[in-house]
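Worked example 3. Consider a protein that binds PMV.
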Amino acid sequence: MKKSDVVSEILKDRLYVSPKNKIGEAYAPTNIALCKYWGKRNQELNLPVTSSLSISLADKGAAVSIKVNSVDQVILNNVILTPDSGFSQRLFKYIDLFRIENSIFFQINIQSNIPIAAGLASSACGFASVIKALNHLYAWELSNRELSILARLGSGSASRSIVHGFVEWHVGKRDDGMDSYSELIEKEWPELCIGLCILNRDEKKISSREAMQRTIETGSLYPAWPAKVAVDLSLLRQAITSNDFELLGRTSESNAMTMHATMLSAWPAISYCLPETLVTMQKVWKLRDEGLSLYFTQDAGPNLKLLFLKKDLHFVVEQFENVEVVNPFR
Ligand code: PMV
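Given these inputs, the predicted complex is written out as structure tokens:
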């Protein structure tokens, strides 16, 4: 099955309508997985090997506006990108799925407040905001479930960026992926804080797509990953329902460490850690030994995301220079 088959299945006749609005506008938050998505069972449709669970980062994300234009053009943070830039090409390859007339072109204006491709899930909010903006431009009136499936075709983690709050992306069983979508977990946790420790802003050298594939093909520890995810998902659901921060932190940190262990077991081994990543991890462990309730998670990049409660905000900010704090339920 191709991506375009999924698009036709969801949009049906609506694929043939012309833009109903002059401009399509939308915002999508980025999200950080507490239980990671690592491995695809279908590379074309970005269907995952396991379910995953994330928290959306409120005002950290991407705002997009799309309008019909005389040529295809992407403006990213007020800079016009050249048509052959990797970012522009990836974006228009996605837009092409929804463009049945070859004579229609778009200007896509993206304002993103997170570093692109540094393991801070920029593609998650990027594709989620683009599909939401197209939904607005064409007045398709898609449900969050449908938006999540279509966002997934751009990037797996984008399927979790359609809504705010805690989100679970269901693995699904079907080959067409119609049952692999994300859903809000109806629980707020206002005391929860996420600290973004940006240790390096460079673009990553190995994409998450390539790293996942190499891990699946060669990682001797990968076979243990699905069982680890099943346990962690159940612990995280329990932690969220009962406001058990220690359980949430411990499970998230252990899940991230295990994901990175599967990559270390691949050949050639993959490590997204820089020396500063390890120094920061050790600092978290030391502070925790001294009694602070502080945990971290790490994605496909060297930056860490700290997990802590509002009562410890001042102390954490004092300890970690340049940490940017997000309160997902503000
Ligand atoms: O959506 P992708 O292809 O960028 O993959 C995301 C992978 C991780 O960020 C490492 C994990 C996750 O669940 O977000």
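Take a moment to read the result before moving on. The chain has a mean pLDDT of 95. The radius of gyration is 20 Å.
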